[in-house]
Amino acid sequence: MVRVKKGVNALKTRRNILSQVKGYRFNRSTKERTAYEAISHAGTYAFAHRRDKKGDFRKLWNVRINAALRNLDAKYSYSKFIGNLKKANIELDRKILSTLAHESPKTFEVIVKKVN
Q: How many domains does the chain have?
């Protein structure tokens, strides 16, 4: 069997791992084993939090819509507004409604009046 020296490959792997953890604190940015562990955890968290971000934005949109409704002295709260919106067959999603409420309140007010 021919002897295989793994120096080049090991150094390449080490350099790659340590370049990914630049800016991490303590041993994670300098030691290969802890760096590898930090990378694997970071990947797990990133995957999970990409899913969480969608829910976070939906909560933000709901709060913005509700706040805009209260500023208009509407008869109802967010939940009743969404229910009436569906009954009126107005198919605007929460993201669009939130943007309208935040950036152009006059347009949002027109939509609220149509729902009544």
A: 1
